[in-house]
Design a protein that fits this description.
The structure is a single chain. It is built from eleven helices and twelve strands. By secondary structure, the chain is an alpha+beta fold. The strands form two sheets. Strands 1, 2, 3, 4, 5, 6, 7, 8, 9 and 10 form a ten-stranded mixed beta sheet that branches. It starts with a helix and ends with a helix.
Length: 387
């Protein structure tokens, strides 16, 4: 015979202050837990969304990042001539040889602080190869001119990013002619200009990567073998989605590790709060427990009942934590991508899965905190409890 759950709910309502404080403590831990994981998921999603499963990214053999790669013009032409490269409506290969450099830009309103930002030189084909690029304001840069477009997440974070402003780097003035979006990917943290304009002022007549659209997504392995086996060039071919996902792995793991470490430390305090609350509940209801045992309820039913009560309090705390964490969803922050040592702006991502994890985490804390008080209640001698 089980003790009705309504009995536990009524008991919880009889101790509103202690119950509320315990639930709030658990809620704060859950909010921190969700916020840390939302930070990690947001960073990972920004890089994963950068790539497309239809695209291939080609780097110099052995290079693990665009920053350390170098591809000659001749190599870029050989790659573009591959039969695995898709052709555009004009019959030209959908391949974009790109320049990738890191530049220092003053942060908006703080001339003493600098941001390390990616300046990417692209060809006209880049806007077709990467389907998620959209001009949000202004226009594209014009070939042959010192014009640039700025990723939407940089606008308002670094200086001189308004359309019509002039930004100075690499010893030249560059006119901002537009802002662009890229589906929330890390491209939105970059500055784009024409590759032929960037090459002379940065790293000379060399590209850092070549991105191209596959003729068919299913031929990636074939294209990879053909390019890496070509004796004229020394390159590695990566599927874009896999490459950019790998760029996020290190920092994502660190953030997730910190989330578990920090919240585990905080959870100890929350669990002790639940222990105190439930011990107080057992002490105040000792005669009631004796009556329940006298009426025929088994000790394991008493144990289950008090565990359920602790779990209900924790679940309420979990709901509070989820509500506290929800407002951070979509807030844009930034961190350093350790593979390119440049700043990547991204949004916190509070997903339904994270909210569910927070609720489960809360219930686990409640069960841990309620176990020993519930065990004590189940083992109370009936005669002693009635006295």
């Amino acid at each position: 015979m089980r003790i009705p759950l309504v009995y536990n709910v009524r008991s919880v309502l009889q101790r509103p202050v202690s119950t509320a404080m315990t639930a709030l403590g658990i809620g704060i831990v859950v909010a921190v837990f969700i916020a840390m994981l939302a930070l990690a998921h947001g960073f990972g999603a920004a890089l994963v969304q950068t790539g497309s499963p239809d695209n291939v990214l080609v780097l110099r053999r052995g290079a693990d990042a665009e920053l350390s790669s170098g591809i000659s013009r001749e190599t870029a032409r050989i790659i573009a001539a591959s039969p695995h490269v898709a052709l555009g409506p004009d019959g030209r290969p959908l391949a974009s040889p790109e320049v990738f450099v890191a530049i220092n830009i003053h942060r908006l309103g703080d001339t003493a602080s600098m941001a390390n930002v990616v300046a990417r030189g692209v060809s006209e084909a880049a806007f077709t190869v990467r389907r998620n690029i959209r001009i949000a304001a202004g226009r594209r840069f014009t070939s042959g001119r010192s014009e640039i477009i700025v990723g939407q997440k940089l606008v308002g974070r670094v200086g001189h990013t308004a359309v019509g402003d002039t930004m100075r780097f690499a010893g030249r003035d560059w006119v901002v002619v537009g802002h662009f979006t890229a589906g929330g990917s890390s491209f939105e943290s970059e500055i784009w200009g024409e590759n032929e304009q960037f090459m002379p002022v940065f790293r000379g007549a060399v590209f850092q990567s070549v991105s191209f659209r596959l003729r068919e997504p299913a031929v990636f392995e074939e294209a990879k073998r053909a390019l890496e086996g070509d004796q004229r060039i020394t390159v590695d071919a990566h599927r874009e989605t896999e490459f950019y996902a790998s760029q996020s792995e290190l920092l994502t793991r660190i953030l997730e590790f910190l989330a578990f470490v920090i919240t585990s430390i905080m959870a100890v305090g929350a669990v002790f709060g639940a222990v105190n609350t439930m011990y107080a509940a057992v002490g105040a209801r000792t005669p009631e427990i004796a009556v329940l045992l006298t009426l025929g309820f088994k000790p394991r039913s008493v144990l289950t009942s008090f565990l359920a009560e602790s779990a209900v309090i924790a679940l309420a705390g979990g709901v509070i934590g989820c509500l506290l964490a929800l407002p951070i969803n979509g807030i844009v922050t930034s961190t350093t991508n350790w593979n390119s040592f440049t700043e990547v702006a991204f949004a916190f991502r509070v997903t339904p899965g994270l909210l569910l994890s927070g609720l489960v985490f809360a219930v686990v804390m409640g069960v841990l905190g309620g176990f020993f008080p519930a065990r004590r209640a189940a083992k109370l001698p009936v005669v002693q409890a009635l006295r």
